[in-house]
Each structure stands twice: as structure tokens, then as C-alpha cells.
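hey so u asked for the seq, here:
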Amino acid sequence: MPKFWGNNKFNGTVKELLLTIVGTTVSIVLTFGTSAWLENKEQEQARRMLAMTIINDIDQSLTVIRNRAYIEERGRAVTNYLVHNIDRLESISDDTLFIFFNYITSCAFNTAEEFKKTNENIFNSSQESWRTLNDRKFLNNVMDFYNARNTLEKQSEEWIYFQKPVTKKEEYQMIMENDELANRESFIPLCRSLLQSKRVSNYVLNSGKRTDLYKSILAFADMNEENKFLMNISEEDMENFKNNTYMTVRPVKDKQLIGTWEAVLTDGQQSIKYEFRKDHTFTTRQSYNWKHQIFQGTMVQIVTMQGTWSIEGDSLVKNYDSNKCKMELDDKDVTYLSEYADQIAVMKDELCGEKGKQGLMNQLAQNKRKAQGTNIDKTGTRLELTEPGSHAVHYIRK
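ran it, C-alpha cells below
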């Protein structure tokens, strides 16, 4: 120990100086150490978030492919069933016939889901993403999957075995020009003719080639489990991620549906309201606002329909009772010149007269049953209903 340490003259000064130096040093170490720790933690959080985003994107893509494989399998089975029962199509339900029609046509009732490319684009275009992930095996797995998915999409568009037997032009003629889907009397002969055609037969025979391609992509499900292992991500982590960042599918239960729901629509031209009751009956009131240059004001077409409902799996199934359907027209605020009276009369007939009512009855005669996918939020106050090939409509509990 230095001699002056015991000297009272220097003792207090030196101690104070040393304590100041030590305190400053500790403060610097703590500041930079804490900053580095926080930075590393933020980097790890960013890494995990990006990894979970990509893993979830792969899972969602695999779900799309499973659905396509299911549609393929169901369409092939229904077509084979109809071929073996071609002489009794008149006794087969519309639902079954439309499964066949959707299976062989190109666009009108297309239920195939699309892949979301946003996450793939971020993954491929951002060098920061690669630096953040920083795991070669994980990166290779993800690139292999996206390459395989893109190959599937390209083959779906270009490979002859994926081409539908009925072209878009023919489908347009069937629906828009020849009205062959307007009623069963014309639709059944159309189905019979298609079932007997060589191109439909070959499309079914080549179903296995399409199915094999789907299976080759679905094999990546095991790889995605490896991705979770590589990035130290648990199933609980993924569940929390999806609950916090995505609207997960929560099929509605019977008791959750009971009540009044009103659609959230932004165009201001229509409104939709449902009342679902405990006895599994429902009433829907739909209104449409019509404007035209030949009159002032707004004609409001009001359609009220009733029926029964049930929850089947994750779908709401509604069966309409055509005897309990009503159409009304509210035109109390409409004014027009007398020279337009005949045109106004025709318009009213189309909206709510015999012509309009007959059109509604024809629609119900073709398909009184409607199935919609359900999704309800955690609060039970917001409901999403989705029909195949249509955008979801959101409803608020009233």
C-alpha cells in the first residue's frame, strides 16, 4: 500500500477520486452493456418475428394446397358417381351437379384459393431479412418451398393436365348466351352431355397427375416442422403469433349466432340484416337503393326472406322457404315527368312487380340452400360470412 494512503491529508481526496473513477467506469460499462443487451434482444425478437411470419405463410400455403387437393378428390369422385348414374340425373340434387360443373369449368364458380405472395416477396427482396434470420438451413428450406410453390403455380397455368375441359369462352356461352344454367330442365341435359364427352373423361383420368403434384408440395409440411426446431419456435409461440397478428378462424357456435346482425357495407347502396332465432329459423331483410336519371329521389327495393339455419362444421347453412319471401318497393320520395311514366312502370315491375318476384323465385328454385364459411371474433360481436369465390361480408351484432 502506498505510504500516503494512511496520510489523512491525502486520504479523503484519493478515496473520492478513486470512487469517482470506479463509479464512472461502472456507469459506462452498465450503459454500453445494457445498450448492447437491449440491441441483441431486439435483434432476436425481430429474428423470431420474421421467422414466425415465414413459417406461418408456409403453413397457410399448405392449407391452400390441401384444399385444392380436396376439391380435386371430391370433384373426381362426384364425376365418377354421375357417370355411373347418368340415366338418373333428374333425381340427383343441384348441389351434386354443381360440384361436377365447378370441377370442369374455368372461372364462374372457382373456389380455389390463391397464394399470398407478400411474405415471399419480402423474403426474397430484402437482404436485411437474410441477415436477420442468419440460419443457412432455414433459409435453404424456405427457398426450396417457395421455388416448389412457384413451380406448382406455373404448372397450374401452363400444364395441359390442369386445363379445364370447359373453356372460359364456352362457359360464357352456357351462362350468358344460352341460359343453360337458368333451370334444371336445361342444366341436366348440359351435365349429361358433358359427362359423355371425351375431354371430361380424360380430365378425370388425369386427376392422379394433379394429385401427385399436390402431394409433392404437401411433403414440405415436415420441413416446416424442422423450421420451427431450427428457429427455436414452439407451437405455443406460433399460436400466440397467429392470435396477435391474424384473424384466426373461429367457427361460430349455435348460441353465438343467435341474435340480430347487420352487414358493414361501405357503398351506401344496400343493407343486409339477419335475425337468427333459437328455434333455428331466420329472417333476412335486404334493401337496395336505386337511382336513375329519369327520376328524382331513390327507389328502395326491400326483399324479406325466411327459412331455417344450422351450423355444419365451420359453415352456416341456410335453407330458404320460398313461400315466406316478400318483395316491396318504397318509392314515396320519387318524382318524375309524365313522359317517363311507362319507363318507370317497367322499372318498378323489374324491381318489385311480377317480373321481379318471378326472378327471385327462379333463383330460389335453382338453389334454396346456401352455405357460408363462418368466422367470429373474440368478443362475439363481429361476424364474417364467406361464400366460395366471393369476398367476405362482415356483420356487427345489433
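Residues 1-5, 34-39, 108-112 have pLDDT under 50 and may be disordered. Residues 55 and 197 are 44 Å apart (CA to CA).
lmk if thats what u needed
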